[in-house]
Every structure is written in structure tokens, then in C-alpha cells.
Amino acid sequence: MNSLSDQPKIREFFLERLEDASGISGTGIVARGVALPSGKMVLEWITNKAPISQAFYDSPEALLEIHGHDGKTLLRWVDKETRPSRIDRSKLGLILAVSFVAGLLVGVLTMMI
User: Fold this and answer.
1) What's the distance, Cα to Cα, between the start and end of the chain in Å?
2) Which residues contact 24 (CB under 8 A, 6 or more apart)?
3) Could you count the other beta carbons within 10 Å of the beta carbon of residue 1?
4) What is the Cα–Cα distance from 56 to 35, expressed in whole angstroms?
5) Where are the domains of the chain?
6) Model-level pTM?
7) C-alpha torsion sign, points 85, 22, 96, 105
8) Cα–chain-centroid distance for residue 80?
9) Percent helix, strand and coil across the chain, each rounded to 5?
10) Residue 13: which H helix or E strand, with range?
11) pLDDT digits (tens, 9 = 90+) for 37-93
12) Apex 26 CA angle, 69 and 43, nearest 5
């Protein structure tokens, strides 16, 4: 019997848009997702408006065929590049707020131990 450690892993990724060809999603990190062991891709758009939409693709190549915009959008694997090279300034406030709250939670949990 195979253990889970012998199986291919689920890999996280994000889409980094260098230039907004459509004028809709902006630049910076615009979506995140996972690649399943089968190679199928699950993508979730980052938006301030509800509902957030999800989409499914057969492969990374199929995803980029639609959303790559001829190299203007990059697929970045989290396990290889954990820090985005560019962040859209409109999302920076939210990122800093989440980081601050996470830091507070770690501090509180540390005091409780």
C-alpha cells in the first residue's frame, strides 16, 4: 500500500500580472490556486467583490493559454518562489493588515503557552 508521502504533492501557485491587458484585474498578484497531483489546476481570483470565482484547467499550459496574455501574466510556484516580485499597491494595505493581525495572534498564543 502506498503512503501519502509517496504520492505527488499538491502545489500552490499564484498568478502575477505584469501588465493588465484587459483593464479589469489590475497588476500584481491577481489569482491563486493549486495544482493537483493529476496535473489539473484550480484557480481562484483575488477580488474585493463577492463572489470570488473559481476556475478549473487541465494543465498549467492550458491555464496560461487563456490567462497568460502573451507573457504579461506569470504563473509562480509558491514552493519555488515564496515572495512575489511585485505587489499591486492597491492590495498592499490588506496584505499589511493581515500580516499585523497574524503577528498579534502569534504573540497572544505565545503568551498562553
Assistant:
1) 39
2) none
3) 3
4) 10
5) 6-87
6) 0.61
7) negative
8) 13
9) 30, 25, 45
10) strand 11-17
11) 999 999 998 887 776 789 999 999 999 999 888 888 999 999 754 544 444 555 555
12) 65
Residue in the block written with cell 516580485: 85
Helices (H), the chain: 60-67, 89-112
Beta bridge partners of 41: 35, 57
Q: Which three cell numbers stand for residue 106?
A: 502569534
Cell of residue 55, nine digits: 476556475
Cell 503568551 belongs to 111
Q: How many CB atoms lie within 10 A of CB 4?
A: 6
Nearest Cα residue to 73 out of 18, 12, 23, 14: 18
Tell me which residue has cell 505565545.
Answer: 110
